[in-house]
Amino acid sequence: MAGPISALINGLRFGLLLVPRQRYPLPTATTFWCAALLSVLADFVLNLGLVSAPEEFDLAGLTDSAFEILKPLLLAWLLSLLARRPALLWGLATWMLIVGMVIRVVAGAVIARDPQFDHTWIVFSAPQFAIAFGVWMLLAGYRIWRWLEPSWRWMRVVAFALVAAVPQALIYRAVPYHLDYFFAAEPDYSAPVTTAVWPEEVHAETLFAEQSDKLDRALQALEPQRPGQVDLYLLAVGSYASEDVFRNEVNYVQALFDQRMGTQGRSLVLLNHFDTLSDRPLATQRNINRALTGIAKRIDLDEDLVFLFVTTHGSEAHELSVELAGFPLQQITPESLSRSIRDAGIRWRVVVVSACYSGGHVDSLSASTALVLTASRSDRTSFGCGADSDITFFGRAYFAEALNQSVDFIAAFEIARDAIALREAAMDGEPSEPQIASTALIEAKLAQWRSQLKPGPPLAFTPPQ
Q: Quick check: helix, strand or coil at residue 396?
C-alpha cells in the first residue's frame, strides 16, 4: 500500500502546486488504476452532496468518470512519447488524474457556495474560471515535469506543459461537463418538468366553458381611453403552464407597467398556470383573438397604443407553445399572431415575443406602425427558461433592468441587448441575438406617448415565494 499512498500524497501536493518532500518510486499501472477508482468514488460523493433530493442513481454517469480517467492517460502517453521516456507514462497519468480530481473538488466547492453555478460546465465555460483552472493545470503540469526531469531547462518544461494544457483546454471547451454524474433530480433533462398538480376543485370542462364570461368581465373592467391623451394598453400572455417562469414574467410585467408606464386599469393578463386557473383567463389563441378585439373596442385606434407581450417556449418552426396539462391546444404561429392583431384593427402597437427562435415572428409582425422586439434570432435559442428559473434572461434584462432605467422602449432594448450579450458570454453560450424592427412612424408615436407620461417609480423583480 505504500506505493499507492505515496502516489496519492504526491499527487495531492502537485495539485496544490507543491513538490514531494522526497523521491519515491514512480507510480505503476496498478497505482494508476487505484487512483482511478478513487477518482470515481470522489465524483460519486461530490455529486451526492451537490444534487438536491430526490436523487436517482444513473449508471450512465460512469461514462463521464471514465472520460476523466482516460483523459490524463492519453495526455501522459503523448508527453512520454514526445519525451521518449515511456517509463514516465504511469507516473504522469497518475498525478495528472489526481490533479484533475483536486480541481473538480474545488469546482464543486465553488458551486456549493454560489447557487448561480449549478453545473460544472458553467464553471469551466465562464471565462474567469476557464482561465483560472487552465493556469492551475499549466502550473501543476510544470511542477510534475520539473520534478521528474530537474535537468531540463525551463523553456523545454514550459513547452511540454503547454502540450498538456492545450488539449486539456480543448477538451473542456468541446465536452459539456456536468457534475450530475451519478444522481439526478430529474431523469429526463430534455423535457420541462411539471411539478404543479391540477387543482381538485377545478374541472376542465367547466374551466373551458367559463372562458368567454371570464374574459368578457376582464375586458369590461378595462378603463376607456382618454380623448386627447395617448393611452397605453397592455396585454401580457404567458402560455406555458408547466413552468413558473412564464407566470412570474407576465405578473411582473403587468405590475411594472401599472406602476411605471401608466397602464393601471388598462392592463390584461392571459395566463396558463395551475395557480391561476380560477383567476386569470387562459392564454389560448382564441382568447388572444378576443382580448385584442376587446381592447380595440376600448381604445381610439388612431390615438392609442397597445403593448402585446408573449412569453413561452418556442420551436425551430417558430411556433409559440400553448400548454396546459396535456390538452391539445392550438399553437401560436407568426401568421396566427399577426392575423389576430390585423383582425382586431389595432394600428399602433409594440409587440414583444420572448421565446426561443422568436426572431421568426419579426417579418409577420412588422408594420409601419409597429415596434417588434424578440428575445432571439430566428435560428437561435434564448436562455433562462426552465423549471428552476425565476425569470428569463430577456425578461430580466429588458423588463426588470432596462425599463426600470428608461421608459423608452427602444433605448431599453439596446440596454437589454448589451446585458444579455454579457450574460451569454459569461456562460459561453451561442448568442441569442435579440431582434428589433422599428419605423420612424412608430418611434414618433412612442415619443408622443412619452411626452405625456409621468413615469412611476421603478419596480424591482422579486421572485414569488
A: helix
Say whether 308 sits in a helix, a strand or coil: strand
Q: Which residues contact 248 (CB under 8 A, 6 or more apart)?
A: 390, 391, 463, 464
Q: How far is CA 1 from the centre of its chain?
A: 47
Residue 276 to residue 288: CA distance in whole angstroms: 17
Distance from C-alpha of 333 to C-alpha of 296, rounded to nearest angstrom: 21
Secondary structure (DSSP) of 63-128: HHHHHHHHHHHHHHHHHHHHHT-GGGHHHHHHHHHHHHHHHHHHHHHHHHH-TT--SHHHHHHSHH
Distance CA 397, CA 418 (A): 9
* Amino acid 179: pLDDT: 40
Provide the pairing of β-strand 370-374 with 435-437: antiparallel
DSSP 112-144: HH-TT--SHHHHHHSHHHHHHHHHHHHHHHHHH
Beta-carbon neighbour count of residue 44 at 10 Å?
17
**Cβ pair 337, 310 in contact under 8 A:** yes
- Give every CB contact of residue 433 below 8 A, 6+ residues apart in sequence: 359, 376, 377, 380
- Cell 526531469 belongs to 149
Q: Are 365 and 387 a contacting pair, CB within 8 Å?
A: no
Where does residue 179 rank: exposed (0-12), middle (13-18), buried (19+ CB within 10 A)? buried
- What is the mean pLDDT of each successive set of 10 residues along the chain, which is 465 residues long? 65 74 73 82 70 54 70 76 76 78 72 46 47 69 71 58 54 41 39 52 80 94 95 97 94 97 97 90 96 97 98 95 88 96 97 97 97 96 86 96 96 96 85 96 97 96 86
Please count the residues of the chain: 465
The bridge status of strand 349-354 relative to strand 370-374 is parallel
Cell of 23: 523521491
* 3-state helix, strand and coil shares in percent for the chain, rounded to the nearest 5: 55, 10, 40
* Cβ atoms 141, 165 nearer than 8 A: yes
Q: Could you give phi then psi for residue 354, rounded to 5 degrees?
A: -110, 100
β-strand partners of 233: 306
Distance (Å, rounded) from C-alpha 379 to C-alpha 399? Answer: 23
